[in-house]
Amino acid sequence: MDDTELMREFAIESLEHLSDIENQLLTLESQGDAMDVALVNTVFRAIHSIKGAAGFMGLDTLGGLAHRAEEVLGRLRSQELRPTSLVVNTLLRATDRLKELIDEVENSNGQDVSKHIIDLEKILAGELTDESSASEPTASSSESPAKSGIKTSSDALAEPETSLTDILQMSFDCLEQIERDLATLDRAPTNRVPLENAFSKFQDIQVIAEDLGYAQVVKITASAGKLLAGIHVGDFPMDPQISETLGGAVKVLRKTLQAIQANGTEGDEDHQFTVDFLEAVLSVKIPAKGKELNANASRPVPPTVTHPDVTSSKPAPKAAVEKNIESRSEDRPATSAAANNPKPQESKTEPKTAPPDATAADSTIRVDVALLDRLMTRVGELVLARNQILQFQSKIDDPGLQNAVQRLNQITSELQEGVMKTRMQPIGNVWTKFPRLVRDLASMCEKQVRIEMEGKETELDKTIIEAIKDPLTHLVRNTVDHGIERPEVRRKAGKPMEGCLTLRAYHEGGEVNIEIVDDGGGLNIERIKAKALEKGLISAEDAANMPDREAGNLIFLPGFSTAEKVSSVSGRGVGMDVVRTNIEKIGGSVDLQSRTGLGTTIKIKIPLTLAIVPALIVSASGDRYAIPQVNLLELVRLENQVAKPSIEWIQGSPVYRLRGRLLPIVSLREELGHCDKSELRHANCLNIVVLKAEDRQLGLVVDRILDSEEIVVKPLGKQLKNVPVYSGTTIMGDGRVALILDVVGLAHAAKILTKNKDRSVSENNPVSDSRSPDERSMLVFAVGHSGRAALPLDQVTRLEKLSRRLVEQSHHREVIQYRGEIMPLLRLSGQLGQLGVAKESDLMDVVVYTHENRSVGVIVDQILDIAECRFPRSTLDSVEHTKEGGTPSIVIDGHVTDILDLPTLVASALA
Amino acid sequence: MIDNMQLCTFRLDNQYFGVDALKVQELIRHQTMTRVPLAPPSVRGLINLRGQIVTAIDLRSRFGLPSVAEETELMNIVIRTDEECVSLLVDQIGDVLTVEQNSFESPPETMDETLRPYIDGAFKLEDRLLLLLNWKNVV
């Protein structure tokens, strides 16, 4: 491992440490006096590891800052300091700075960190807070300088996740190092380098022994450490007697470790004698200090006593175990002191918790993402090879081969699934930075905001995690800035002063839902409409008719920002439209719901993975193309005589009337340069794929619609990157390459979408998903030879094609067995006084309707269409009432259509 | 500028070219490929090379040489760049030759401007000239 690699490892590891610290510090702040000491220890340990590694790599600036931070944490740990917001703030700023330094680790030396160090020192000196305890000044002064002066190059500490043999080997190495250091000290008693090294090595062994629960080793190393610390702070000089004593201790330690290696016990060396001897030397050298240390040692030591309870209450067992390791090893000075009067709780808990430590730590490794990607590619190839073999299988009739292929099939699928899983990461990884963000923003906006997270463990593909980071941050920032009201406003509204921002993630139907919920004031719909009107995004008529939900989603339009003043928090020109664009780029969607006075919910739906997407395979000019399903709305097929007149032309642009709305038609062949659009005029049969591109729709005419398939997305080569109509490539079952169409790019190429979006918005209803309340989907069907009737689609449970031969008679009524029950049938034409159409076909169209928890089958002559119908007040007024019980009629697609009152009809028929 | 190097040689429209053998991943026979409408003319199509998508570049079109009939089966020289693999379509693949630096000469001033970026120079072999392809500018 060369230096740069070492540096990189260091940076990765340190950033991992730091990523948790932020939230842990915030938790400590919220706990106040009742802070969880185990948590302090965790933070302490993380900072300590960074300090140690930095010292090892000669990163003095980094080490120095980490060191000061560690000292402050030390005070917190010994409860000399309280985690006031000032202390936490200072620590947070220091960790930020550490992050910056680590980001540019090569240049970190010589960077200016004096401001942070001064702040931390002020806290240490008690200048910035009155919390520093005056009661134990001597105890801390004898302890902290010892810690502070000595740089522990404890690379062994940073990695607890090693097997017992490795750990022991590490300890043996430490002992050897100590012997060398002691030898150097003999020659040059004032040299501080070997002194510090020896001290840190003793500490390393002590930590390891604590982890493994070897109390005797802990005692000896602690005593030896104290002796060296005394020399270091200048209480007494190094002399041959001390050197000899320490040398003796090293020998005893080595024998003990050998015994541990051999049979797991500490052996029968006279440990207590060694400890006593070390203590005796210490007390001879400095009687006064020795007493103080002992007095200090007999002080109750809360960390080790409390942590078993604390961790047992934590939900995740692994986290608890980790915390346990960390807290225990962090207690070093405390335990070293405590070791003089061993506590029964300690000796009981440690051996019990030690074994799971090793397994929990051993169960994860760090893997290069590039390796996973390569693995993914190989698995993709394997899938293809399997597909090819599957095709052969049908040709060769050999049971042995069949079995082998079956197994291959299964193993490949499992392998594919497994590799996919390795790329999954919990969404909590992105969320970790939000508590800090929210806290800082809230204090900047003078608001009180609490953040809650549900479903942190929800997993997403790594690439998606990366992609949603920024949009999510933007939304969270927006919510704190605009969503949640100031405390005084909240109080007036009868809400708690503290606003609550909830992040929620869960899986649903192969997608991940992420919700950002606040209990703030909700959107000011009127202001949004006014703003949209002012910016020319909607027309006055739209504004008047637009339902609130639709209006709320206006904020996702480009060029929209209601923030009256641009605050430093949001309104920096990156609007919600960017959020939406970014989410849609990865195949997701975003929706906003707001209840005035109660809050806003933003719901993001994103696919689990980008690597494999469901797609529709179509063909044009003999080539296959894949269209991602997310862009797909519906398929329309126009046959024979219908095809030609259905396509109408507006100044040379073909359109199709899709349920009364003009759908611009784009020919895929033409877009790909294979022909021109005049071909559409002569087509006998048209396959139209209705697609959604941003807020517009288009009908793509393709030669054939082949299949719907899950495809593995592969990137385009750089020669093709700037061809806008493709988003990637994939390999089909037969091994050939197919291009994936980029629907938005295609729409741009076909001039459906233009850079200037204003026109598109005012021209068409911008948010096509949500219909106005007076618009309903109607199922239109034929009754008799010429009659047409319709009923609201939401009254229909299912549409079925059932065989006429299955109709049976019961109590003079036609019934059919349907899903395990007897379903009465109703002939609609008979009910409406029309003659039914005799059909040769065996299948009949049945509308299944649920009446008082029973299914009723309504036989219709032919299902024609599902149409979006508007029922504006004016239309309803002019509805003609026909003779049958006041059934109104309206015009749908140019035909007079009766609107059925199915509930009444069914009720009367069954009576 | 160039030490003794090994060149993978190929023939294109009766000219003799060489490309740095260290950059060549493999040589493969004609492959079925998927054409890419709207792509630059030199992109002939996409090849599935054991699960990896390789863009096939028609060197004739790059060099402004007359293109061959659609059905002519061209050979692929797969070049591995830092990010991806690219295939160069050539008429015929020759031997791998070790050439000496002292036989190298820069291209003449009179060479066509459009070709200049693609050809670094020529090695003077006994019986003919071997043109050194600048693969970086080609892919």
Please tell me about this protein's structure.
The complex is a heterodimer of chains A (911) and B (139). Chain A is an alpha+beta fold and 911 residues long. Chain A has 35 helices and 30 strands. The longest helix of chain A is centred in the N-terminal third of the chain and has 29 residues, at 3-31. Mean pLDDT of chain A is 74; it is low at 130-162, 288-361, 564-573, 755-773 and 872-886. Chain B has a single domain, classed as Beta Barrel (OB fold (Dihydrolipoamide Acetyltransferase, E2P)). Chain B contains 2 helices and 11 strands. Chain B has helices spanning 59-62, 135-138, and strands at residues 5-12, 15-20, 24-28, 43-49, 52-58, 75-80, 85-90, 92-99, 104-105, 119-124, 129-133. In chain B, the strands form 2 sheets. Chain B has a 6-stranded mixed β-sheet, with no helix packed on it. In chain B, strands 3-6-7-5-4 form a 5-stranded mixed β-sheet.
The low-confidence runs of chain B, each spanning 5 or more residues with pLDDT under 50, are none
Q: Largest sheet of chain B, described in full?
A: 6 strands, mixed
Amino- and carboxy-terminal Cα gap of chain B: 22 Å
What is the number of beta strands of chain B? Answer: 11
How do the helices and strands follow one another from N- to C-terminus of chain B?
EEEEEHEEEEEEH
Contiguous low-pLDDT stretches of chain A (5 residues minimum) are 130-162, 288-361, 564-573, 755-773, 872-886
Q: What is the CA-based Rg of chain B, rounded? A: 15 Å
Secondary structure: elements and pairs:
The complex is a heterodimer of chains A (about 900) and B (about 140).
Chain A: H1 3-31, H2 37-56, H3 60-77, H4 85-103, H5 114-124, H6 137-149, H7 155-158, H8 164-187, H9 192-212, H10 215-232, H11 240-263, H12 271-285, H13 287-298, H14 302-312, H15 317-330, H16 332-338, H17 344-362, H18 369-393, H19 399-422, E1 424-426, H20 428-431, H21 434-444, E2 449-454, E3 459-461, H22 462-483, H23 487-492, E4 499-508, E5 511-518, H24 525-534, H25 540-545, H26 548-552, H27 576-585, E6 589-595, E7 599-607, E8 612-620, E9 623-628, E10 632-638, H28 640-646, E11 647-650, E12 653-658, E13 661-667, H29 668-671, H30 679-682, E14 686-693, E15 696-702, E16 704-712, E17 726-731, E18 737-741, H31 743-749, H32 758-763, E19 775-783, E20 787-792, E21 798-803, E22 808-810, E23 813-818, E24 821-827, H33 828-831, E25 843-851, E26 854-860, E27 862-870, H34 873-877, E28 880-881, E29 888-892, E30 895-899, H35 902-910
Parallel strand pairs in A: 2-4, 9-18, 13-15, 20-30, 24-26
Antiparallel strand pairs in A: 1-3, 4-5, 5-7, 6-7, 8-9, 8-16, 10-14, 11-12, 12-13, 14-15, 17-18, 19-20, 19-27, 21-25, 22-23, 23-24, 25-26, 28-29, 29-30
Helix pairs in contact in A: 1-2, 1-4, 2-3, 2-15, 3-4, 3-5, 3-6, 4-5, 8-9, 8-11, 9-10, 9-15, 10-11, 10-12, 10-16, 11-12, 12-13, 13-16, 14-15, 15-17, 18-19, 21-22, 22-27
Chain B: E1 5-12, E2 15-20, E3 24-28, E4 43-49, E5 52-58, H1 59-62, E6 75-80, E7 85-90, E8 92-99, E9 104-105, E10 119-124, E11 129-133, H2 135-138
